[in-house]
Specification:
The structure is a homotetramer. By secondary structure, the first copy, chain A, is mainly α. Helices cover 74% and strands 0% of the residues of chain A. Chain A has 2 domains: 5-60, Arc Repressor Mutant, subunit A (Orthogonal Bundle), CATH 1.10.10.60; 65-206, Tetracycline Repressor, domain 2. Chain A starts with a helix and ends in an 8-residue tail after the last helix. Chains C and D meet through helix 1, helix 7, helix 8, helix 9 and helix 10 of C and helix 1, helix 7, helix 8, helix 9 and helix 10 of D. The structure holds a DNA duplex.
Chain lengths: 214, 214, 214, 214
DNA sequence: CATGAATGAGAATTCATTCAT
DNA sequence: AATGAATGAATTCTCATTCAT
């Protein structure tokens, strides 16, 4: 599905508003107004508000992909390096699309998911977990990673930590006395901190070195 | 503020629906209907839908507390044991009040927070992080924990992982082939898995043993 | 009909609020709250909101009266003196019960009058016009007043002027630079001005002196 | 602001109902029903019930004006003739827009005025009083009018009398045995009577002839 | 292809009154 | 005799969508 300029404009405004106020909390009028289009355009272009959010998912899902897969097939990298690439890639994806991932988080909190959207989310999560699995199994095969790693919970920790960090970034600022930091600078700062934190976390946990299991 | 039986009944229904469909996505009619009360009772008892969710927060915040603090002042426990207690306590609290913590998560995703609620959340998060800080500093003082621990991100990982695990539990079921497990049993299973995972994660990360920083 | 203390308290609060915000614009809750009584007291004591305003009319109508009639039967007074007494008496009555007369004015503006209230108002107006008629006829009989006086319009001017002056007193203050005058003082000032104005108006108009009709 | 046919239709129905039953006493449903439009049209066109009455004021205020000003700048007229024109003009305006002036009277009786409307009323009253002032000062300059004329109270008498006459016209009919007179004829009759009455009143009061002040 | 006008359903809240005690 | 609890009707307004052009 290809979208024209006006449609993309609407989708992007909708994305921001859905992230800010939730799907139900955002009216098509809000969207139309901020996107400088007529209210009836939303129904006209997308059919309904429901279909609009589906279009948003369709668009955003079509984007990402690929780039990383090539990186990870590089045979020169040792397992922990690949994990680190995975971590940075996740941070980049989530922090670079905060609005969209905010919406995705909300959707996962809901019991009222649209089948289409649920499917999108499931696909994405599947892809994420399979990638993780591949890397971990590689590491295990090379004897670099320990055996009993809870794959789904490691993934949960990865995405849970990033998502939660994004959701609570204002609190993080306050706690760490960064209220006055320029926004762009803060985003960079948070990415770096998250990167260090998660890499350290994963390294200690998945590698075989001196680890004594409880 | 004390609430009578009917008020509590309303609050509990509201809690479930807000968790399921979000605040804006839940109408007072929905709540009234499921709680088997007249629609106007919500305004009558709480003043407004807004005040109702505030009452929910007031009630739930008034509960928790204390129990744990005594546990952690026990001097017989070594640092990592206290951390483990903290982890189990967090899992218990979040998994035992999934609806409420779902709502809290939603609130944190929103830019449109009510001041009262924001304050509640801030208080709660402050309490959590301070407890973590106390335990970690204790462990560091005893030489059991390593020095450079990112306090706020460790907390983020703790709560982020649990929240995300709860939000994606259906996916977890499917991935791990647990679709047929009895619900109660699954909850227990998930708690135990989370407990093991987080304890292992924290142990590897915070303890001093052979850790080589990157 | 006799009213007990609490009933009178309610009536008086209602009078003030009806004057301020109109009958429909005032809720029984407003009244109950300001009168420090339970909401259900209004229905309990008066039967309904409608009946409450009827009770107000009944009470206020029962008051006034008499005092003036004796004054005007005094045979030592010349016609214009009696007219002046009538004017001052009207000013006193209207300005001393601004709330009630505000309500009465509102009722006259309405097409939705309760029969009871309409009847009260008619009675009152009848009494007023008959008194005016008596005085004017006396003056005419004595040759002091001119013949062709429009009785009902003279009465209209008397009450219309006072009512309008009361309704627009804030504007009067501003126009005459009296914003800073103490309220009580202003009331006295306005009464005196109105008195002078109306007496002068009536004297010029009703007396026979050199009047040349158009 | 220009209003389309349907909007004007709504405004006119609203005007009549607000005059009949007051602002608070009139529901948007009443208006919609009588105007044969959908209830939501009122919000759609005007934003709110509040804004609707503001639109009414805006429309009615935009009308009147000017016509009279030219009349009064005619130098051939002697002062008392100009006063008479002013009187007739006031009668025409108020009696020709009874509904609107009824609403304006109600607004003046209220403490809960919308700023916009208060401003309109203030403007109108200011214009009225300034016109009166101009005429009276002209008359005084020519020696035709006496010196100590209470400007604001003369204006009060003018508008107070007309307003009160309109408000009590049913009573007037009854008193003067005009119940059976055709409505249009009665309106003409009342205008003529008011005109005579007020002209006579003003002439006696403001002209210098033989007036002896008390 | 695009849009302004229009709408009916549903939103939250307030209302005067009633009822059980 | 008095009152707190409760209620259903009615309030204004917003909503997503449709329709005629």
């Amino acid at each position: 599905m290809e979208y024209n300029t006006k449609q993309i404009q609407i989708i992007e405004v909708a994305e921001r508003l859905f992230a800010d106020k939730g799907f139900a909390g955002t009216s098509v009028r809000d969207i139309a107004q901020e996107a400088n289009v007529n209210v009836s355009m939303i129904s006209y272009y997308f059919g309904s508000k429901e279909k609009l959010i589906e279009a948003l998912f369709a668009m955003r899902m079509g984007e990402s992909r690929s780039r990383m897969e090539t990186l990870l097939s590089n045979e020169d990298l040792i397992p922990i390096q690949k994990i680190n690439i995975l971590i940075d890639s996740a941070i980049d994806r989530l922090m670079g699309n905060q609005c969209f991932h905010n919406i995705m988080m909300r959707e996962q909190l809901s019991s009222e998911r649209t089948p289409t959207i649920s499917e999108h989310i499931r696909t994405l999560k599947m892809r994420n977990i399979q990638l993780m699995q591949k890397l971990i199994e590689e590491g295990q095969a090379q004897g670099a990673f320990r055996k009993n790693i809870d794959l789904s919970l490691m993934t949960t920790t990865l995405y849970g930590t990033i998502n939660y960090a994004i959701a609570t970034q204002e609190f993080y600022k306050r706690i760490n006395g960064l209220e006055d930091m320029e926004e762009a600078e803060f985003q960079t700062h948070l990415r770096r901190k998250l990167s260090q934190h998660l890499k350290s976390l994963f390294k200690s946990t998945v590698t075989n070195e001196h680890h004594n299991q409880d």
